[in-house]
Amino acid sequence: MISTLPASERSFPLAVDQQGTGFPILCLHGHPGSADCMKVFTDVLSTEFHTITPDLRGYGHSQTQTLGAKLSPFTMQDHLTDLEALLDRLGIKKCLILGWSLGGILAMELALRNPDRFSGLILVATAAHPVSNMPQPTLPDLLYTLIAGGLNWLKPGWRWNIETFGRRSLLRHLLTQHTPAAYEFLAKAGTPATVKTSRHAHNALNLALAKRYNRVPDLATLDCPCLVMSGENDRHILAQASHETATHLKNSQWISYPKTAHLFPWEIPTQVNQDIAHWLIGCGFSPKASAD
Predict the structure, then answer these.
(1) Structural domain contains residue 106
(2) Is 92 helix (H, G, I), strand (E, B) or coil?
């Protein structure tokens, strides 16, 4: 049964980080993830835009412990309700969306639900029909990942740990360039986000994937400018799937970064942010413009 309650009453109160002033950009993290994972973008964008970065329901601080609301099982559709209610509460009538992985899927869903509200999409390592070729983890994979993550937590970016354990862990499927800087991002944002991701969040995503999510046929209805970015070696969401999404969007630019994988914004952050800035300028988004 579809609820007749307004979105504000059906939504979960999301923890949100806001930075900067100017035209708003809603920034959506992936799975597992949190607002902190998006700082690779928002610390740059917030110098000229108003960035709005929530922890999605069941992630980061958007859980019972901090907000007092009971976290119960939910679906992907509930994320959309939460995000629309958040924008309403903040008085945001129109904005851009930047979404990484799951966040990119939610960005497309929001735009499909209410295309007039969103001025453009920046889709990072995502696809309207996500396809993966990630192998099943082995016991050594899990062991090396546990050791690499623990040591990286204690000593972020330690080259010996990267070469001895990191490259043998599951991180080899998420990173191509195993740089100390990428591992520092992992220690600061990736590991805490993984630990704080709730079982309800895992279950909601698994349920959606089991239904073989595919929104490619609907993309032609979107007219807003879109930037689609992917890592050439991404195994979590294949670059081919991202390219398929780009080709079905009416007004899109696609960038594929060589020698990078799913976490490419942490591998080549300067290049990624420069390309986003160039696209924003090319599309005529004035940094300090009002959203009204």
Answers:
(1) yes
(2) coil
